[in-house]
Amino acid sequence: MSERAVYRTRLAPSPTGALHLGNARTFLLTWLRARSQGGEVVMRMEDLDHPRVKAEKVEQAYADLHWLGLNWDGQILVQSRRKKIYREIFDKLCRREMVYPCFCSRADIQAAQSAPNLGDDLVYPNTCRGNNTKINAVMAERGCAWRFNLGASRILKYYDNFMGWQEADITRTSGDFVIARTTVSGLVNVAYQLACVIDDNESGITEVIRADDLVNSTFRQIELYKALDYSVPEFLHLPLVIGADGRRLAKRHGDSRLSCLRARGQRPQRLLGWLGYTCGLCPEGAEVELDELLSVFDINLIPKSRVIVTAADLEYLGF
Ligand code: GLU
After folding, report:
1. How many CB atoms lie within 10 A of CB 282?
2. Residue 236's pLDDT band (boundaries 50, 70, 90)?
3. Is the dihedral angle over the CA atoms 261, 262, 267, 271 positive or is it negative?
4. Which has more confidence, 109 or 191?
5. Do the beta carbons of residue 208 and residue 200 sit within 8 Å?
6. How far apart, in Å, do the first and last CA atoms of the chain sit?
7. pLDDT in tens, 199-216
């Protein structure tokens, strides 16, 4: 049997903050999707984002997920321990001249915007394309970003296992994107997009599941899979959990950290019931066990719309 015959997905928390209700929904559904078909779940700690990573959040994330009843298989993959591997693959892209160093500041990029940008990210106008990849004195002195060269403008497409066909011309909506940064001390740090692709490939992930705010990243990552001659996994993006104001769930909407419920000695059944209800898996107001959700799980039952969390929901859940 080939590696890819096994269904395998991953949980990839970032320890930049505590896991909240939104993370709980995505991770629960990821786990249910895998376990309901006898698949495997890999745990990957995405702790590369240095200034914002907090060591205590790593242990807290594992404890939060265990409290919810979620488990995973095999060794945990910790990104901060894999920098050498990332660096080798980054060097390969450099040698193939698929990346280039960029010295533009955010303000430079902002000033160059020709049209209002609809997405979260700024569109990079590829100003530094054509820069030589050889590390030179300027890079060592100022540091730089390394961008992946997307080439000519074209529509890219992929089939999303939840959202259906997705298409975009990311050469216009995002532009060449950052895959690494060289610090002023000359250190090369690989960024999320590249590390994610390297790890998903190495872990034999067959389906990447995450919230729909990362659809844009999926287009970028597919280009990296192709550049590295990796086989492209399937993708499934779930509706994001948002506050009543339509914005991504955050502190301003009230405390929704799982660690807060744990600290109060709550059991997870009420939260599982609420999450299950938002996924069409159980009636409103139910308190359920994880096994009950597993026995009725069906991806087709999950509503397509984003989930709005109100202050009343948070109160009901015991926050
Ligand atoms: N670490 C990211 C997050 O917590 C997820 C990235 C991914 O699933 O690719 O939002």
Report:
1. 19
2. very high
3. positive
4. 191
5. yes
6. 47
7. 999 999 999 999 999 999
Report in angstroms the alpha-carbon separations of 51 from 15, 47, 149: 11, 10, 27
Distance from residue 87's CA to the centre of ligand 1 (Å)? 20
Measure the CA–CA gap between 99 and 112, rounded to whole angstroms.
21
Q: How far does the centroid of ligand 1 lie from the alpha carbon of residue 137, in Å?
A: 35
User: What secondary structure letter does DSSP report for 257?
Assistant: B
What's the CA gap between 229 and 309, in Å, rounded? Answer: 41
Residues 6+ apart with CB under 8 A from 46: 12, 13, 14, 15, 79, 192, 195, 196
Amino acid identity, position 271: L
Give residue 130's pLDDT band: very low, low, confident or very high (50, 70, 90). confident
Give the Å distances, CA to CA, from 110 to 83, 113, 192, 228.
31, 5, 22, 31
- How would you classify the pairing of strands 188-190 and 177-182? antiparallel
Do residues 302 and 212 lie in contact, with contact meaning Cβ atoms separated by under 8 Å? Answer: no
> Between vectors from CA 215 to CA 257 and to CA 228, what angle results, nearest 5°?
115
Token pair for 284 = 């409103």
Cα 258 to Cα 244: distance, rounded to the nearest angstrom: 19
As to burial, measured by CB atoms within 10 angstroms (0-12 exposed, 13-18 middle, 19+ buried), residue 23 is: buried
114 CA distance to ligand 1 centroid (A)?
30
Q: Is the pTM of this model over 0.85?
A: yes
Within 6 Å (CB) of ligand 1, which residues are found? 12-14, 46, 196, 210, 214
